[in-house]
UniProtKB/TrEMBL annotation:
Domain of life: Bacteria
Region (Disordered): 1-24
Keyword flag Manganese: no
The protein's name in its UniProt record: Glycosyltransferase
Group of enzyme by EC: transferase
Length: 371
């Protein structure tokens, strides 16, 4: 009987030792994996994200099949969002959030034995994307694939004047609602149409002629979800000296200067990617997006939060066409005219404000003199 008791105790100790070694191995592997994450494992938040992702990945085998769900509904997106909201008191800067998201995905995939390639974000509201395209089948398919790696409820694709296989490609993406116009509308009109067709809290705007990685699009969604109304592409670092800039860039900079926002440099709603809050779109009107500089002026004049949040080099990937190359080309002329319209709106609203202020001052002065 005594021998049996000793044998039982030894067996129990063995099981505890094995469990301890297993836990140590998990911790060791977790720390070792962190070195493969972009930016390293310097922050304890990165290590925690990696471990939390591994734990969530272990439960994914019993969760619904990831391949049958949109990314916004996936187990990965849901568990990451729940973990962030339960762990962090306030949302960090995107630079840290990007690393935490990447670490969580890496841990999740290793825990689940899968290869999910999305970019989870802890969004408070809903998000959607509007994409304008015209005969761009070569870049459209991979661009839509990148958008599908983000937690979007839907993608509104405005196809206009398309003469290739773009519509058929779009139909292969379950997240996409395609709107087709046989004639060319231009990007600005297309964005206005797309904005009318979504009720999302955050709307990301892209073009179908350039492929931008989901990780580079996520900051715009993240910023608007965090309270920004217009998250612009910060192009300042890609511009030459002022004397070498073209007239379009000068117009963008001058408009921001006139609006008292020299900090924005040449950042503009004319350039993609950018994101807008659904609240701002509804309040200033989606129709205003047909003239992006005017919409930007109205946003700033009405006190909406406008920021240049992230830099994406769109000069390299911008598709060269007959209408957008050469000095004073058709596209440049259109954009310059849009800025003239925006400046006209600025002067009109400022004059009206000063006139109202002047009338009130006269009224106050007359009452004071009467006394």
């Amino acid at each position: 009987m005594t021998g049996k008791k000793v044998k039982t105790d030894t067996s129990a100790r063995t099981r505890r030792r094995r469990a301890g070694r297993a836990r140590k191995q998990v911790v060791f592997k977790t720390k070792r994996r962190a070195s493969a994450i972009p930016g390293g494992s310097g922050s304890p938040w990165i290590r925690q994200a990696l471990q939390a992702g591994w734990r969530a990945g272990n439960t994914a085998r019993e969760a619904e099949a990831e391949t049958k769900l949109l990314f916004v509904e996936s187990h990965l997106q849901r568990t990451f969002s729940e973990w962030i909201h339960a762990t962090m008191k306030s949302m960090p800067e995107y630079s840290l959030m990007k690393r935490m998201s990447a670490a969580y995905v890496q841990g999740y995939n290793e825990g689940a034995g899968s290869m999910v390639g999305g970019v989870p974000l802890p969004l408070q509201g809903s998000a959607a994307a509007v994409v304008c395209a015209s005969s761009e089948e070569d870049s459209l398919d991979p661009m839509l694939a990148e958008l599908e790696r983000l937690p979007l409820k839907h993608i509104i694709l405005v196809l206009n004047g398309s003469r290739d296989n773009s519509y058929s490609l779009a139909r292969s993406h379950p997240l996409v609602t395609a709107v087709y116009y046989p004639e060319l509308l231009g990007h600005d009109v297309g964005r206005s149409i797309g904005a009318r067709l979504t009720d999302a809290d955050t709307v990301l705007f892209c073009d179908g002629d350039m492929v931008i990685a989901a990780e580079e699009l996520a900051p715009f969604i993240y910023a608007v979800d965090g309270g920004c109304d217009a998250a612009l592409n910060d192009l300042s670092g890609y511009l030459p000296l002022f004397e070498h800039q073209d007239e379009v860039t000068h117009c963008k900079s001058y408009l921001n200067l006139a609006l008292g926002r020299s900090d924005l440099g040449a950042s503009s709603l004319t350039a993609v990617p950018h994101a807008l809050s659904g609240r701002m779109i509804r309040e200033i009107g989606a129709s205003q997006l047909t003239v992006p500089p005017k919409a930007q002026a109205l946003a700033i004049l009405h006190g909406y939060r406008v920021e240049a949040v992230h830099a994406v080099d769109v000069f390299k990937g911008n598709r060269k066409r007959a209408g957008n190359t050469g000095k004073r080309n058709a596209v440049a002329e259109l954009i310059i005219g849009d800025h003239a319209e925006a400046l006209e709106e600025l002067w009109r609203q400022r004059y009206a404000f000063r006139s109202d202020t002047g009338a009130k001052r006269k009224e106050v002065a007359s009452r004071r003199n009467a006394v």
